[in-house]
Write a structure and sequence with these properties.
369 residues, alpha/beta, TIM Barrel, nine-stranded parallel β-sheet, two-stranded antiparallel sheet, 11 helices, globular, GH
Length: 369
């Protein structure tokens, strides 16, 4: 998860002009509510990051996931102990080909085939791998890997085809929201000019093979940087007034939906209204440095609970795409004590390493009587 690159300044400034500051204090207690999925609901999973030296073994993590009814997980590699622990559980898994291997996967089909054989075919279908994230936020990687991305995706997909795995495993790549050059109003969303060619090729690939674009969405960073202008309630799904897109009259009651629709609009600007989205990361830190305004347990509980409830509830789409139910992965399962950066980076977890809850959780996501 990149930090400042996650959110483009154009959206921050423009949203700041329209967001109304009406901060309210809320209780954590509502998170005891059981969330009710509907027929057209989206799905909620978690990111299982492991940048830490004090986490429980994967076998215990799997039991933790099962005890809270979490049936989707995303990992940032293809660690064998994790994939073996997930075998036979029915938990759907998204794995990652690391950025460091993009150039090899792009330039060598034999590398891609070997990688799929060793990291996917060796575990699937016992371990229910449903998607491969080829890289993570490649456009903001300092090693300038953009040119390798789509060729690597194609070679990984071809390897899946050769091994008869392509019907059950999709290929995509998570992008940061900073990939957008224009993002407000949401209907005017567009990708940065220097990324438009790569994004057009990626979207055509995703359309051709029925995959969805992966995007990482963090309202926290927008609020933290502009807390004097952006309403905390708007960032936490509690804004009763919201904002109106002046181009189409659509009403937004959360920054999350505005961010997602800006990506949908950017895709449409490249003539791709036929590709879905999966939010591969979103979350809110339970602790931060003094200047990290908004970080805290209460806000983290409110954000993660509300984004989960919004995802699985009736009408789980967005104002621009009301029928496009989302799959959303909360970031992250654990606090990770070895992540660099400010305090918030080590406090996005739903659980402490001892498996105690950081705050009350919106799980299990199941039907309420």
């Amino acid at each position: 998860m990149g930090r400042l690159g996650l959110y483009c300044s154009a959206l921050l400034l423009a949203l700041a002009q329209f967001a109304v500051a009406r901060v309210r204090i809320s209780s954590l207690n509502w998170l005891h509510l059981i969330i009710t999925p509907t027929a057209d609901a989206g799905l909620v999973g978690v990111n299982y990051g492991r940048v830490a030296d004090n986490l429980p073994p994967p076998t215990e993590v799997v039991q933790l996931l099962k005890s809270y009814g979490i049936d989707r997980v995303k990992i940032f590699d293809t660690d064998s102990t994790v994939l073996k622990a997930l075998s036979g559980t029915g938990i759907s898994v998204t794995v990652t080909l690391p950025n460091q291997q993009l150039s090899s996967a792009a330039s060598s089909s034999s590398f891609a085939t070997t990688w799929v054989q060793q990291n996917i075919a060796a575990y699937h279908p016992g371990t229910r791998i449903e998607a491969i994230a080829v890289g993570n936020e490649v456009f903001v990687d300092p090693n300038n890997l953009t040119g390798f991305l789509v060729p690597a995706m194609k070679n990984i997909h071809d390897a899946l085809v050769n091994l008869n795995l392509n019907s059950s495993i999709k290929v995509s790549s998570p992008i940061a929201l900073s990939s957008l050059g224009t993002s407000y109003p949401p209907s005017s969303g567009s990708f940065k000019p220097e990324l438009a060619g790569t994004m057009a090729s990626m979207l055509e690939f995703l359309r051709q093979y029925g995959s969805r674009l992966m995007v990482n969405v963090y309202p926290f960073f927008a609020y933290e940087s502009n807390s004097d202008k952006i309403s905390l309630d708007y960032a936490l799904f509690r804004d009763a007034q919201g904002i109106v897109d002046p181009n189409n009259g659509l009403h937004y009651f959360s920054l999350f939906d505005a961010q997602v629709d800006a990506v949908f609009a950017a895709m449409s600007a490249l003539n791709h209204t036929d590709v879905g989205l999966v939010v591969t990361e979103t979350g809110w830190p339970s602790m931060g440095d003094q200047q990290e305004i908004g970080a805290g347990k209460e806000n983290a509980a409110a954000y993660n609970g509300n984004v989960a409830r919004r995802t699985v509830g009736a009408g789980g789409g967005t104002p621009l795409k009301p029928q496009a139910s989302l799959t959303v992965y909360l970031f992250a399962l654990f606090n990770e004590n070895q992540k660099p950066g400010p305090t918030s980076e080590r406090n996005f977890g739903l659980f402490y390493p001892n498996k105690e809850k950081v705050y009350d959780l919106p799980f299990p996501v199941r039907t309420e009587a």
